[in-house]
Amino acid sequence: MSTVLDRLGQPGADFLAERHLATLSTVGPGGLVHVVAVGFTLADGVVRVITSDGSQKVRNVERDPRATVAQVDGRRWLSLAGTAVVERDPDAVARAEELYAVRYRPPRMNPRRVVVRLTPERLLGSRSLLTGD
């Protein structure tokens, strides 16, 4: 099954494996874009962001599932846009925490932790990070 991630070249995959923060953009309650800095992981074809239940990003996703994660480093950048859901299942949270610990560091304890899981539907980025169409 083909996905938008198939356009990600090896340099793009390497870029996403590097330790960088990113931005998560969601639609705020008044319709304006809500952008926050986040750590994220990409595994199993989905983007995961760990956060606290009840945060603005969680409320935004539950109201309007459109979301984008973007990572920038100098002239290199990638943007993954798609549909997001909030996962509260303990196994889903544990999986996201494990992935986060590998990419960044073990996350602090948070009994209110949830996962914003984004399924990429559109991939944009620096030409050098993508394969030809």
TrEMBL record:
Residues 14-123 form the Pyridoxamine 5'-phosphate oxidase N-terminal domain. Keywords: Oxidoreductase. InterPro entries: F420-binding_dom_put, F420H2_bilvrd_red/Heme_oxyg, Pyridox_Oxase_N, Split_barrel_FMN-bd. Gene3D superfamilies: Electron Transport, Fmn-binding Protein, Chain A. It holds the Pfam family PNPOx_N. It comes from the Bacteria. This is Pyridoxamine 5'-phosphate oxidase N-terminal domain-containing protein. It comes from Ornithinimicrobium pekingense.
